[in-house]
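User: Here's a chain of 231 residues. Predict its fold as tokens.
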Amino acid sequence: MAGELGKYKLCVSARSADKEILKKSQDGGIVTQLFKFALEEGIIDGAIVAGPGDEPWRPRPFIATTVEELMTARGTKYNISPQVSWIKEATRSYGLDKVGIVGTPCQMQAVRKGQLYPFGLRDVPDKIKLAIGIFCMENFSYQSIKQLVEDHAAMKMEAVKKMEIGKGKFWVYGNRGQVVQLPLKVTHKYEQPRRMEHRLRADQERGRHLGQGDRGRVLRDKTHRAGEART
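Assistant: Prediction complete.
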């Protein structure tokens, strides 16, 4: 596990016990739960999260300062939301002294580098009190998601209740109870190019530690999962 996750102090499996959070959470609602606790306990004054944008399922970063606002950001959006660009907005325009932020691993790397080398981020690094990184394996442009949903799943974006990737398939759930599953081989060509590079590199790295027979089995049977914002 250490080779796959890097350095860590503790690994736990957690799930929110809040029924309101779980109603629209992606899986266990743990990111929303952590931010809710942090807001209520005064650990943070607000959190930079990915909320609904101007178009269905296009995420827009915003600063949630109440639990009610936080609840509007539940669930995974499979497009990149420019969270990091709102750090200065949170501290300067909103005047927050204790900021929370959630993002993909590459975004968290940018946050940490900004804390170490705060060029253009004067007086900001020490105000980031809670940074939550989420798993990310597949990511799509908004146009790609729209094509997958409307062309392949035959649903309108505004009619979609939830999307997820699991068990080797891309799942689309409609507001009227429809469920459409697409094989991941259909979705691969729509992925952001960097995601595909990272996946190939991970396969190659993992293959170095396997025998030839095992390596072939992993490449044949591998099931991809995405966790970018398992809120």
